[in-house]
Amino acid sequence: MPAWPFTRQRELLETIPGVGRRTVEVMIAEIGTDAGRFPTAGNLASWAGTTPGNYMSAGISTSHRAGPGSRWLGAALGLAAISAGGSQNTYLGAGYRRLLPRLGNGGAIVAFQHDILVTAWHMLSRNEPYRDLGADHHERLDPERTRRNALAQLQRLGYRVSLTPAA
């Protein structure tokens, strides 16, 4: 049996948390291995139907539903997004848990379908494996915001808190 011609691309994409062999095979079948077909990651996400809509009429936003796209790719990415969202100690898992209260389960899944596609585009265009930023990426990015949010949450629970810097 001959070797699969896209072994390198398959191995690259399988490094994304939640993305398995079948998902990669669907991704390669639907979008191909040449990231240059799409000028930007946003073009790929738009083609796949994972970007939120922006429908306005008379200044009123009426819908944010994602547009049409490949239903096979959408199904495969949906399963990958659910799997990545359940992963522990990963950037994607932490991001899913951050979006879940605000967007709900369906919205968070579509957001992560988009994130996985954008990540795949960058990986294929640079020929690099996935580099996880870590579950604490957002806390490290803005520690002051993390402190304020934790303090506000404790105050909402009825605690009076005074902070003193550690020595």
Descriptive terms for the model:
globular; 57% helix; single chain; mainly alpha; two-stranded antiparallel ribbon; 167 residues; 2 domains; 4% strand
Helix-and-strand structural type: mainly alpha
Helical residues, percent = 55-70%
Main beta-sheet strand count, sense and barrel state: 2 strands, antiparallel
Tell me the distance between the termini.
64 Å
What fraction of the residues are assigned to beta strands by DSSP? under 5%
Total strands: the figure is: 2
Side by side, the strands of the main sheet go: 1-2
CA-atom Rg in angstroms: 19 Å
Order of helices and strands: HHHEEHHHH
Mean pLDDT: 83
Describe the structure.
The protein has 167 residues and is mostly helical. The protein folds into two domains: 7-135, no CATH class; 136-167. It has seven helices and two strands. It has helices spanning 7-13, 21-31, 41-48, 71-85, 91-126, 137-141, 143-156, and strands at residues 55-57, 60-63. Strand 1 (55-57) and strand 2 form a beta hairpin. It is globular, with a radius of gyration of 19 Å.
Short description:
The protein has 7 helices and 2 strands, in the order αααββαααα. It is mainly α.
How are the SSEs ordered, and which strands pair?
Elements: H1 7-13, H2 21-31, H3 41-48, E1 55-57, E2 60-63, H4 71-85, H5 91-126, H6 137-141, H7 143-156
Antiparallel strand pairs: 1-2
